[in-house]
Known about the structure:
Elements: E1 3-4, E2 7-10, H1 14-25, E3 31-34, H2 45-48, E4 52-53, H3 60-75, E5 77-78, E6 81-82, E7 84-85, E8 89-93, H4 96-112, E9 117-119, H5 121-127, E10 138-142, E11 146-148, H6 150-163, E12 167-169, E13 174-180, E14 183-189, E15 192-195, E16 199-201, H7 207-214, E17 221-230, E18 247-250, E19 255-260, E20 263-268, E21 299-300, H8 304-317, E22 326-336, E23 343-346, E24 353-357, H9 361-377, H10 399-411, H11 435-440, E25 443-448, E26 451-457, H12 491-502, E27 505-508, E28 513-518, H13 522-527, E29 541-547, E30 553-563, E31 566-571, H14 574-583, E32 591-594, E33 599-605, H15 609-614, E34 631-636, E35 639-644, E36 653-659, H16 663-674, E37 680-681, H17 684-693, H18 728-737, E38 741-748, E39 760-763, E40 766-777, E41 782-790, E42 799-804, E43 807-814
Parallel strand pairs: 1-15, 2-3, 2-16, 3-12, 8-18, 16-24, 27-37
Antiparallel strand pairs: 4-11, 5-6, 7-11, 8-10, 9-10, 13-14, 14-15, 17-20, 17-22, 18-19, 19-20, 21-22, 23-24, 25-26, 27-33, 28-31, 28-32, 29-30, 30-31, 33-36, 34-35, 35-36, 38-41, 38-43, 39-40, 39-42, 40-41, 42-43
Helix pairs in contact: 1-6, 1-9, 3-9, 12-17
Flavin-adenine dinucleotide is lined by residues 10-16, 34-37, 42-46, 49-53, 173-174, 202-206, 210, 225, 227, 267, 298, 332-334, 359-362.
Amino acid sequence: xxxxxxxxxxxxxxxxxxxxxxxxxxxxxxxxxxxxxxxxxxxxxxxxxxxxxxxxxxxxxxxxxxxxxxxxxxxxxxxxxxxxxxxxxxxxxxxxxxxxxxxxxxxxxxxxxxxxxxxxxxxxxxxxxxxxxxxxxxxxxxxxxxxxxxxxxxxxxxxxxxxxxxxxxxxxxxxxxxxxxxxxxxxxxxxxxxxxxxxxxxxxxxxxxxxxxxxxxxxxxxxxxxxxxxxxxxxxxxxxxxxxxxxxxxxxxxxxxxxxxxxxxxxxxxxxxxxxxxxxxxxxxxxxxxxxxxxxxxxxxxxxxxxxxxxxxxxxxxxxxxxxxxxxxxxxxxxxxxxxxxxxxxxxxxxxxxxxxxxxxxxxxxxxxxxxxxxxxxxxxxxxxxxxxxxxxxxxxxxxxxxxxxxxxxxxxxxxxxxxxxxxxxxxxxxxxxxxxxxxxxxxxxxxxxxxxxxxxxxxxxxxxxxxxxxxxxxxxxxxxxxxxxxxxxxxxxxxxxxxxxxxxxxxxxxxxxxxxxxxxxxxxxxxxxxxxxxxxxxxxxxxxxxxxxxxxxxxxxxxxxxxxxxxxxxxxxxxxxxxxxxxxxxxxxxxxxxxxxxxxxxxxxxxxxxxxxxxxxxxxxxxxxxxxxxxxxxxxxxxxxxxxxxxxxxxxxxxxxxxxxxxxxxxxxxxxxxxxxxxxxxxxxxxxxxxxxxxxxxxxxxxxxxxxxxxxxxxxxxxxxxxxxxxxxxxxxxxxxxxxxxxxxxxxxxxxxxxxxxxxxxxxxxxxxxxxxxxxxxxxxxxxxxxxxxxxxxxxxxxxxxxxxxxxxxxxxxxxxxxxxxxxxxx
Length: 828
Ligand SMILES: Cc1cc2nc3c(=O)[nH]c(=O)nc-3n(C[C@H](O)[C@H](O)[C@H](O)COP(=O)(O)OP(=O)(O)OC[C@H]3O[C@@H](n4cnc5c(N)ncnc54)[C@H](O)[C@@H]3O)c2cc1C
């Protein structure tokens, strides 16, 4: 064929069509959309999706993507007919726990700016007369939810794009790629080759296969999911409209329902996971779906046995269904990921290979726009850190992991998930060298990025009663917790917190992402990416923000200059590696190496830290001899250590790094040296509470690319006069403009209460912002919550309310940090 184009979109489902539509809107019309099926009903997942769009999500990003999908689909028109039926959405509770969860979801909606309401059982039945009000505790209603008519939407979007110049190639399969110098050069198709510098893989369940053709790993898992139509429902006889009933979710039974004219559709996630490799999906000629799903390659034959219990549950909630039967059913295939979020971005290994996979219809409008913006403008207006394909740790690409986690996510899709809930399998996956000692102290482990991380140590229960002349921490008031916030918590957390501030403790910091940046160009390279000045003498450590071109915070880093051309970077995770690698000079002057796994780290923190370290080390540890925010190579006993005088918990102390082989010895030496000083081990629970008390931000939780350092309270890290760096011009303008919003520190009026994060914050009764991190400040006796608020409400003393389940908790904007604002404890 010998065609060429600026972008080739592979897949004309809801995602590919939305991307084509938005590329065309942004002026990129030299685009080809290729699909192996007939366009617009290609036989992919979008062709059979019942199209329920429930916008509410614990994730702000996912809610924003869904909200835009609704906006887009309501604006689409196909030959005078709609592409979205805005019937509203109702989620019902059949247990008290679920009713609480619906209150929490109402809170998310308030936090993310979505209109919603809680309904009584009778209110629900008034809107969906088939529902038995006796069967439910209540409902949660979002009036703007509804039904996306996926195939009509695809048709409307592609026609629009076509009118602007986008070309469509149906019945054409992509069979491979030509890569040149690590970049996409051409796409091979059954209709010939297309020369192009960029492809966008929107191939849905076939995505992993298409990725493998180019050598790109797309860690997603196709799984079967049941959906069935009933025979006509007597109460709906003569229904002229496709749907007037709100869409319905019955999460306690892992199910959802919608009206189809005079019958109902019932979807279930109750059954066993049914994984399938992308390569094993039968082609259209051998597709096993029946009835209205015949010939669709994304559909497997219905397995009625798996539907027996869900059907019973559906009839209990909607009794009139008991007079009907299953008319047609399917086991439809779609994608699951380890965390429920899509996989988006451009491969770093194969430049020009872009991915938009594992996207529900619900988020497809937003994702298509985001991908178009990313391609054309280099950045999406919605922050995509939670969906970026480079958020994955290396092990998360392992097929065994992808299948196990995909299946787990299928099982949990409607479960009530606590913010601290760890993955169940595979564990333990990554352990620090201190693990045996932690197990011996009866650590309660949670998991993050595959790492086992102690949350507290049962051995520290002794701190709760007085011993050895040390104070007993139950003599100070430790606020109790409600059932939800008490999960994954113990009063020992408070005791570890207080004992660290009184004595000294070891914290395992091994899971912190660590990079080594070396080479003759290392300084210039890093300096050009970060906001703070790092051209300082060897031994200096600098805390800095790293921003994108718009001044949004991509990460916060701690950079230690260990040699003229040698920097150790404390980072936040794989996204930092991606950002650095993409900006690295093309010559050989900079080498970036991830050293997280092979390097362990102990935080030795507390007022007695100097005495403990001095007992096993000959270095000058005095305040003058080893200054705050400096690093030195020392020996601890016989262990070579890079020591940095820093603390994320606001205490005197050091972060002690060594290679993993020395880890146990380092622990044992410090433990023995600390015995006379009442040394203890502290877990993440205490660590987190102390960092919040001290006002230290966590990237990804408290701030991200939506925020400038000025807004996030990190203005002190921005040195506009240091020379050029990414984001400088935008930050100069932002500084002049002044912050539009601020990350503020709230203290709750009732210090015994606690919130968890992602709750809405109300000013004068209206939702104005949301909580990021929260904890009890056990040293200050306060309940602290960080939150984003418009700048006009950020003045200390401003009264606000935080929505917590069905309650409104009073709070006030306070000065910060709440603990040791004079920095006396660290600089001594
Ligand atoms: C039973 C069921 C019910 C669902 N219900 C809902 C719901 O109510 N709400 C919701 O939000 N989501 C729902 N989903 C999920 C939703 O359907 C999918 O996530 C979504 O349709 C995926 O869209 P897509 O564009 O990524 O993939 P698809 O629609 O599958 O499009 C991918 C396209 O890529 C093409 N393709 C693949 N390989 C190649 C190749 N080599 N060359 C050329 N073309 C290729 C395919 O032909 C296909 O057309 C449901 C899924 C199932 C299975």
